[in-house]
Write a structure and sequence with these properties.
This protein is mostly helical and about 130 residues long. The chain has helices at about 5-35, 35-40, 50-70, 75-95, 100-120. Helix 1 packs antiparallel against helix 3 and helix 1 runs antiparallel to helix 5.
Length: about 130
């Protein structure tokens, strides 16, 4: 039975982190262009702090994805931290998102963040000794 090796797990985590980073970057831009004052008036948007932090962590995910892809320790650490913090910040969106689109993006973000963290912490199986 073939098991997932550590380098393969890191590559998968890097690709997922890159895709989630690009999606977070693209989804945050329309909200950031409105500005903080206009977001407070609109009821269908999350708080500006959440939007801005999602934008920052999307950039960190892209940087960490490069490091994880190349197998660098700093990249793995940045990927784990960026996905952990951004996943925690997205967690309230599962319960309190005002629109279905925001609920879906928060749910996907949290689930994919957990998968990325698990893949970054993946270890090669130890050989069985008899």
């Amino acid at each position: 039975m073939n098991r997932l090796s550590r380098p393969t797990a890191l590559k998968i985590a890097a690709v997922l982190s890159f895709l989630l980073g690009v999606a977070g970057f693209v989804m945050a831009l329309p909200f950031l262009s409105r500005g903080a004052a206009n977001l407070e008036v609109v009821n269908d948007a999350p708080p500006f702090f959440i939007i801005f932090s999602a934008f920052v962590f999307a950039i960190l995910r892209l940087i960490g994805a490069y490091g994880a892809w190349t197998g660098q320790r700093w990249g793995i650490v940045v990927t784990i931290l960026a996905n952990a913090v951004d996943g925690i910040l997205a967690l309230p969106g599962i319960f309190f998102a005002p629109t279905m689109e925001l609920w879906l993006s928060a749910t996907i973000s949290v689930l994919v963040s957990v998968v990325i963290i698990v893949l970054c912490l993946w270890r090669d199986p130890k050989p069985v000794t008899a």
